[in-house]
Predict the 3D structure of the following.
Amino acid sequence: MAEDEPKPSQLSMPLVLDRDLTKQMRLRVESLKQRGQKRQDGEKLLRPAESVYRIDFIQQHRLQFERWDVVLDQPGKVTITGTSQNWTPDLTNLMTRQLLDPAAIFWRKEDSEAMDWNEADALEFGERLSDLAKIRKVMYFLITFSEGLEPANLKASVVFNQL
């Protein structure tokens, strides 16, 4: 969780809000509404409380997951769900089968500075990121904000050990 700066043999990779991709996915939802159409079978449409984030793997090999570093500047909850492949919404739509399990869930309670999380699932998800980094340069995530949170309230990164 939110700890000291990464050690020299560690690499911290931030989750960055992808404003363009989030906007593109929101336009897809609006387009369907305006035309009175339904989503494709199995298509994942972006909900208002969801945003698309990405990690650009500045190093792809010899990474071992160390920890999530997530800070919420106010009480609330975020759910971080990875996607199994890169997608370009102008060519293909995000499908629900491309969403990875388990998701990592982080929350901060009222009157507390401490972060809590679903530790086992978050660790399993983090460990999968080490393997996924070997085969891709970018990974996309859907982050769901709840209990009053929005993207401005989140600072998140994944810390890896460099082997």
